[in-house]
TrEMBL record:
Classification lineage: Bacteria, Pseudomonadati, Pseudomonadota, Alphaproteobacteria, Hyphomicrobiales
Name of the featured protein: Flp pilus assembly protein TadD, contains TPR repeats
TPR repeat segments: 141-174
Keyword annotations of the record: Repeat, TPR repeat
Originating organism: Aquamicrobium aerolatum DSM 21857
SMART domains, alphabetized: TPR (SM00028)
Keyword Coiled coil included in the entry's annotation: no
Cited PANTHER family: PROTEIN O-MANNOSYL-TRANSFERASE TMTC2 (PTHR44216:SF3)
The keyword Transmembrane is assigned to this record: no
UniProt cross-references to Pfam families, sorted A to Z: TPR_16, TPR_2, TPR_8
Length: 269
């Protein structure tokens, strides 16, 4: 397996994460997926399918409901998710932190709180929250997968992959676990292994748009831009898919330019 040195791994992790975030945002920024309907209807639609306008409208609607009753578990958790999707990570974390105080033994709350902490870069507290949510006598595969994702971000891929394997034993063929497995290899720079898991994930039952967009990302990072655009266009409009691939091309071109500059610098020294 091809791996990076410790220094290069850090640089690769930052670059790949930036690309992944940019592609995700570009995927929900268009207006062609905007549908008419009341705010109430929009507020109950799948968050990952919403346009930026829908997300803003839903955040406002849920925010008003949250103010009326901040202890409403379903409203608070959905509000936190929408805030996170709109980039308001600190506000999302504040909502989840209060909810974790109100529901200290609720597994789904602790799990979501852990994810919110991880998104805010507070990885060690995130790990603690997810582990507290887990119960050894009745292990939850979702929590195992979430813990693995946090360990990957902490630079502990071996421990993360052990958890993914255990999660797959509990939930064989689960798309989200396979996707996390793929992201684990992506963060390490092993694009071939990442693609293998991403393809399995995209073909699994229950695979959603984000899983297939991750596959498009991995394919694009290997320079197969036309194939990446074809995969992305199944989930996004042609314009959005083209914009994603154009961004990916520019990111990789910038990365290559920096590499060339470093090589030239070594030659002169």
């Amino acid at each position: 397996m091809r791996t990076m040195s410790k220094g290069r791994a850090g640089q690769g992790r930052l670059t790949l994460t930036a690309v992944a975030v940019a592609l995700t945002l570009a995927g929900c920024a268009g207006t062609d997926r905007m549908t008419t309907g009341s705010i109430g209807r929009s507020a109950s639609a799948p968050i990952e399918t919403m346009s930026s306008q829908q997300l803003a409208s839903t955040a406002q609607s849920l925010g008003q409901a949250y103010v009326r009753n901040p202890k409403d578990l379903n409203v608070a958790m959905r509000y936190a998710s929408v805030l996170q999707m709109t980039g308001k990570v600190d506000q999302s974390l504040a909502v989840m932190r209060k909810l974790a105080i109100d529901y200290p033994r609720e597994r789904q709350v602790l799990a979501a709180y852990g994810k919110a902490l991880a998104s805010a870069g507070e990885l060690e507290p995130a790990l603690d929250a997810v582990r507290r949510a887990q119960t050894p006598e009745y292990p939850d595969w979702k929590l195992m997968s979430a813990e693995g994702a946090i360990l990957d971000q902490l630079g502990k891929p071996s421990e993360a992959r052990q958890l993914y394997r255990r999660a797959l034993e509990l939930q064989p063929g689960e798309a989200s676990i396979l996707s996390n497995f793929g992201m684990s290899y992506l963060l390490e720079g092993d694009l071939k292994a990442a693609e293998s898991y991403m393809r399995q994930s995209s073909q699994a039952a229950g695979a959603d748009s984000r899983v297939r967009q991750n596959l498009a990302l991995v394919v694009g990072l290997q320079g197969r831009f036309q194939e990446a655009e074809e995969i992305a266009s199944r989930e996004l409009s042609p314009q959005q898919a083209e914009a994603n691939v154009a961004y990916l091309r520019s990111m990789l071109a910038q990365q290559n330019s920096w590499s060339q500059l470093k090589n030239e610098d070594r030659k002169t020294n």
